[in-house]
């Protein structure tokens, strides 16, 4: 069910990363249901093909790429824009979870978390700043998390990556404003997705119940975030830039 019309994002080409699972997959579905053409990106080719096959409408495309650093991401996306662009917007949902006490933290895990989230985000921004890659008046939306604003044991690397996203969008908003390109983030609370299920497997039922109670409205669904993403990507969000929209069922307000 969507509150947007089937023409809300019509006529545009929208890149969605992390589109093979969870929040990215749900947002790709919503963008397509709103009339947009989706370029859906994931790591695993079979999974992203399957996700694209389920999208409503036609003309969508599946692309597989491992997002891990600024330069590689920028080069990949510039080539994609030449072939399939220019883009009206990008929703960057790709990311990996990380829970590990800091005494056990190693460079590789920090690289994995930062690479998929923050470094890729900076590469996406660089690519979209290139001539012809993005339409003036477009929108960039990056997935952040409440972990960027509230501490939790074992989340140092993940929190750093998401706080980095929050800081990044403020500066990017200034840089892209002359072209009326808006840049925002979404800080989600706990959303029931495959990532959430993996995290839940490492916790007791009682711990998960307590965690859910910290969300005034309980855990969220991927569609709750997808609707916020569509708002920020499309014309309804035309006066919103440089901000992190909190979509967390009341986790942060206490
Ligand atoms: N779920 C939550 O509670 C929650 C809360 C706050 C923020 N978030 C953020 O929301 C975003 C989506 O989370 P989710 O829960 O939907 O996760 P998910 O179900 O695990 O999906 C993650 C997606 O990211 C892709 N991905 C991961 N690493 C990648 C890489 N190196 N290169 C390219 N693609 C990569 C995966 O592709 P493959 O399938 O090909 O591996 C998959 O499509 C993440 O940024 C996450 O940090 C989630």
From TrEMBL:
InterPro entries the UniProt entry points to: KR_dom, NAD(P)-bd_dom_sf, Sc_DH/Rdtase_CS, SDR_DHRS6-like, SDR_fam
PROSITE patterns on file: ADH_SHORT
Stretches assigned to the Ketoreductase domain: 12-189
Family of the protein in this entry: Belongs to the short-chain dehydrogenases/reductases (SDR) family.
Keywords: Oxidoreductase
Lineage, highest ranks first: Bacteria, Pseudomonadati, Pseudomonadota, Betaproteobacteria, Burkholderiales
An example molecular function term from Gene Ontology annotations: oxidoreductase activity
Protein name: NAD(P)-dependent dehydrogenase, short-chain alcohol dehydrogenase family
PANTHER family, alphabetized: DIHYDROANTICAPSIN 7-DEHYDROGENASE
């Amino acid at each position: 069910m969507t509150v947007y019309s089937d023409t809300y994002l019509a006529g545009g080409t929208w890149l969605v990363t992390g589109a093979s699972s969870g929040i990215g997959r749900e947002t790709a579905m919503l963008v397509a249901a709103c009339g947009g053409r989706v370029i859906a990106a994931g790591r695993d080719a079979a999974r992203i093909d399957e996700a694209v096959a389920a999208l409503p409408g036609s003309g969508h495309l599946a692309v597989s790429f491992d997002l891990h650093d600024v330069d590689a991401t920028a080069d990949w996306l510039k080539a994609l824009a030449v072939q399939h662009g220019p883009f009206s917007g990008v929703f960057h949902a790709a990311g990996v979870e990380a829970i590990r006490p800091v005494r056990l933290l190693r460079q590789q895990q920090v690289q994995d978390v930062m690479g998929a989230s923050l470094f890729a985000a900076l590469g996406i921004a660089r690519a979209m700043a290139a001539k012809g890659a993005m339409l003036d008046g477009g929108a960039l939306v990056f997935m952040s998390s409440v972990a960027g604003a509230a501490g939790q044991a074992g989340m140092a690397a993940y929190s750093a990556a998401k706080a980095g996203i929050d800081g990044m969008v403020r500066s990017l908003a200034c840089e892209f404003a002359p072209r009326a390109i808006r840049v925002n983030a979404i800080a989600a609370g706990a959303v029931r997705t495959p990532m959430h299920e993996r995290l839940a497997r490492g916790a007791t039922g009682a711990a998960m119940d307590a965690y859910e109670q910290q969300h005034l409205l309980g855990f969220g669904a991927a569609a709750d975030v997808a609707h916020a993403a569509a708002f920020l990507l499309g014309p309804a969000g035309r006066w919103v830039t440089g901000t992190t929209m909190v979509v967390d069922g009341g986790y942060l307000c206490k």
